[in-house]
Amino acid sequence: MDHLNIITIDGPAGAGKSTVSRELARRLGFRYLDTGAMYRGVAWAARRKGLDIRDKKALSELCNDLRLGFSGDRILVNGQDVSSFIRTPEMDRLSSEVSNVDVVRQYLTEIQRELGREGYLVAEGRDMGTVVFPQAAHKFFLTASAEERAQRRKMQTEYQGKEITHEEILAQIEARDLADSTRSIAPLQAALDCIVIDSSDLTVEDVLEKILSEI
User: Fold this and answer.
1) Within a domain: residue 39?
2) Count of C-beta atoms within a 10 Å radius of residue 175
């Protein structure tokens, strides 16, 4: 695997990872890997089958029969485009839960590493620089205050035509942060050799300039 051509961008929910990673990949001519969408895809499939997230055997069987793939920025589950179904508070919560199940994480880590074998990849997630691609040449950890991330998510949610209060989103984000940072498997944390960028007071272009200046 050509780690010299892999860029990882990790960070908590709402920090702007997806927007930055997608645009960075476009500018560099790299492929963009949205690993969060992969966990959401598994969560959606489990929910659709009515599986208990705590049932490892059922999740293992689900993963064995699951076909995850991408078509551009869209994620496919067994050939079905589920992109519009996975960006909900319920899928946010369920994806955090399934990410703490070892059989799911092992399954997706193998797929992610396979996708990275060709290099020229911008991989976005929560454990890209620490677990999946620890030898990546360029690692970044994008963060922002919980208040700022809640405000961004509120605007995004309202743009989708859904109503939710700032307090509700802030509570969801703080709960997700706690779950991600305290889980037993690959907890959310900045790699020791990564560059941390606080985007609280930065525009997307500001963040991109900082990343491009490093690589």
Assistant:
1) yes
2) 14
pLDDT tens digits, 2-28: 466 999 999 998 899 999 999 999 999
Residue ranges making up the domain that contains 21: 3-200
Domain total in the chain: 1
pTM, rounded to two decimals: 0.88
Dihedral pair phi/psi, residue 4, rounded to 5°? -65, -20
* Alpha helix ranges (H) inside the chain: 17-28, 35-49, 56-65, 89-98, 102-115, 146-159, 166-182, 204-214
Q: What per-residue confidence (pLDDT) applies to 147?
A: 92
Tell me the per-residue pLDDT of 128-184, one tens digit each, with 9 for 90 and over. 999 999 999 899 999 999 999 998 888 877 777 778 888 988 998 898 888 888 887
**Bridge partner list, 9:** 124, 140
> What are residue 143's DSSP bridge partners?
198
Residue 70 CB burial class (10 angstroms; 0-12, 13-18, ≥19): middle
Inside any domain, residue 108: yes
Residues 6+ apart with CB under 8 A from 4: 119, 137
- CATH number of the domain at 133, please: 3.40.50.300
